[in-house]
Amino acid sequence: MGSRGRGSLSPASTSRFLLLVPALLSGAGLAAAPFIWLGPNASLGGDDTRLYFVYPLQWLEHFALPSFGSLSGSAAYSPQMHFVPFTLLLAGVAQVLPQINLEAFSFGIALMSGFTGTYVTALLLMPSHLNYLHRIMAAALGGLVYVSAPLIATMYWTDPLSWVMAVGGAPALIAASVAYIKYGHLRWLL
């Protein structure tokens, strides 16, 4: 049988894991970055007022949920309705971590998932015969370029919550779709 047990790691798998460490650290750094630039304060104002970051439960109870049966009419567009899923998530986070800056938290999740989605998509699309280190470096560079692109900064970071979440949501969905196409397992789309 050999000296290695069933659960031990081979030198090749250990070195490949160590190559992922910079990507994991980049994702963690991007998740922490909004807490550095915003600190404990939320940046309120704008077209959507961003009060859902400070008072998510009250915003849902008094502003968003009543719009379903308000004078806006049934099946009519109300800008408060599409924030409800995001605000429910923020309200859950506020219950678990009451002192957290929800705006920085949502920006951090968007940056981290945008980087990770782009990183995974790039790895899935690159041929596997390429040098592993080059693949990791190219994927990490692609993720960093995506989240720091001027177009992303001017279009998404100045808009309401739903657009901020698209920064991370779109690359994550693309990565899941590419994984489904490449491997054919439905679990990637669930």
What report would you give on this structure?
With 190 residues, the protein is mostly helical. 63% of the residues lie in helices and 0% in strands. It has helices at residues 11-38, 56-64, 84-96, 102-125, 132-148, 150-155, 161-183.
Helix content: 55-70%
From the alpha-carbon coordinates, what is the Rg to the nearest angstrom?
20 Å
> Average pLDDT, to the nearest integer?
78
Helix vs. strand class: mainly alpha
Helix-strand topology string: HHHHHHH
Strand content: under 5%
Largest sheet: number of strands, sense, barrel closure:
none
Choose one word for the global shape.
elongated
> In whole angstroms, how far apart are the ends?
39 Å
Sequence-ordered SSE layout with sheet pairings:
Elements: H1 11-38, H2 56-64, H3 84-96, H4 102-125, H5 132-148, H6 150-155, H7 161-183
Helix pairs in contact: 1-4, 1-5, 2-3, 4-5, 4-7
Quick take:
With 190 residues, the chain is mainly alpha-helical. The protein contains seven helices and no strands. α2 (56-64) packs antiparallel against α3 (84-96) and α4 (102-125) runs parallel beside α7.
Top keywords for this entry?
mainly alpha
